[in-house]
């Protein structure tokens, strides 16, 4: 196992009625901005619960944060923060609202051009405190310091990380997810699956605790994931998925082990260029990446095949069959496993690879050996 430092500062309130805890978390004299997306929270009663929790507070709201949050929309929210002297952010929604609000938490305290935060990694020394009421289990954003923001004018979808961006608290009430459209439920399951894989499917470093945690999460997502299609009103299923997605990217399983993330970096380019949902870019890229990087990943693929899929045989055949099983799982979930299934032609591969290189992602993967040429081969396999 590799050496590491681990802290997750986000307090999680999980279960029915927990939105009321917002009141215990946010100081009574705070000036709060509630950020949200396209309005799902107004239809499903989540906003009513947030309003009840904030009774007596001074608060404002900013809606319209898009899936894959837009940098320019967030600049509008930043104006509200400055005008109203907001000093606490409450994000209510999915990963996009949480991510956009993390960027805002930093941007509100940044003296220079906010774009520097994303493009140059220039971060302020402090950030506004942030809480999250999660309505879409997928990203783990409610319990981590990551955010991804898109500049639609330039097709730049850029990730950032800051210790300052960890939410102070996160409310996970599975009942809020019962209104998810099937497509978003699927996106969440496969996104969480790929998060675990990015931290697990690399090479062995004698880290059985992390491996067993990861295998447990993958097995849970394989067992519970299809149930959101067959029994979408089952609250227990929603709860299991919500907790699995949180643990998939709250930092725990990735400590002390190599991490990949190349599927995500390539996937972000597909979203930036073609607008494909985040989770669906991952199901397109990851199986092709595993095939292209087969030798480097063979040992872990074989372990995964045996422990998660119950396969028997020699390493080579188990590892190959594990990739097939993964594709079948994504297909069973209704997610695409090729660019063509997402309506993207092979003629866009050059542009995707150019954008990846322009963003500086020229040596990605756990060994830093996924160069633009290798990314091109991965995308060609995924065509
Ligand atoms: O905007 P509203 O009206 O709320 O509708 C949203 C949106 O259209 C809807 N939705 C959310 N909760 C709902 C609901 N509809 C009905 N009922 C509910 N309870 O779902 C749609 C998608 O929401 P979004 O927040 O975009 O989805 P997700 O949580 O999958 O977030 C995706 C974003 O997170 C980034 C992705 O790149 C993408 O921009 N990621 C963030 C990560 C992180 N911070 O660690 C890691 C991930 O790998 C990922 O990159
Ligand atoms: Zn993801």
UniProtKB/TrEMBL annotation:
User: What are the Alcohol dehydrogenase iron-type/glycerol dehydrogenase GldA domain coordinates in residue numbering?
Assistant: 9-174
Any Pfam family from its record, for instance, is ADH_Fe_C
Q: Which Gene3D superfamilies match?
A: 3.40.50.1970, Dehydroquinate synthase-like - alpha domain (1.20.1090.10)
Q: Which UniProt keywords apply?
A: Oxidoreductase
Q: Where is the Fe-containing alcohol dehydrogenase-like C-terminal domain?
A: 186-355
Q: InterPro entries attached here?
A: ADH_Fe/GldA (IPR001670), ADH_Fe_C (IPR056798), ADH_Fe_CS (IPR018211), BDH-like (IPR044731)
Cite the PANTHER family for this sequence: ALCOHOL DEHYDROGENASE YQHD
Could you tell me what this protein is called? Iron-containing alcohol dehydrogenase
Q: What are the leading ranks of the lineage?
A: Bacteria, Pseudomonadati, Pseudomonadota, Gammaproteobacteria, Oceanospirillales
